[in-house]
Write a structure and sequence with these properties.
mainly beta; nine-stranded antiparallel β-sheet; elongated; 2 helices; 153 residues; Hypothetical Protein Pfu-838710-001
């Protein structure tokens, strides 16, 4: 696992989200970045039903870079701890089976999607963050690309 920096990028006054993504895309390509596809990360929140006592949340995250996995953040009973979980994509079906205990929050699915670039040893992702139809901001992710474990001669 490499080092990754995730930064919220402020949208300047008078500019829209797509305009800023376009400006950042031009900057990355001028620095030698090569478009290598697109990405999408989403998060859906489930809350426990009132009959279970204290309300707890489960946040499910999906990442197009790891399509066979689901990441979850579960609030522990004490409320001051969070448990991280990685499961296969059947975990989504399990959450449907647990609908008597956990309900999906309405209109809270948030996602970040956009282009990804390779620039030298780095991977750069420019994401437009939306909640439903509403634009919420821009995320810039920069990470060190994984190197091959077996060098080629």
């Amino acid at each position: 696992m490499g080092v990754i920096v995730l930064q919220l990028f402020a949208v300047p006054e008078g500019k829209s989200g797509p305009q800023v993504i376009d400006i950042l895309t031009k900057r990355v390509t001028s620095l030698g970045g090569v478009l290598s596809g697109s990405f999408m990360v989403d998060c859906e929140t489930y809350t426990s039903v009132a009959s279970l006592g204290a309300t707890r949340s489960v946040h499910l995250l999906h990442n197009s870079e790891t399509p066979a996995s689901v990441f979850a953040l579960l609030e522990a009973a004490s409320g001051n701890k969070t448990v991280a979980l990685v499961a296969d994509n059947l975990f989504d079906l399990l959450m449907l089976k647990l609908s008597n205990f956990y309900q999906a929050k309405k209109q809270t699915k948030i996602e970040s999607r956009g282009p990804r670039f390779e620039a030298g040893d780095f991977l750069v992702k420019l994401g437009s963050v939306t909640m439903g139809p509403a634009f919420k901001g821009i995320l810039v992710e920069v990470g060190k690309r994984k190197e091959n474990a077996y060098p080629t001669a």
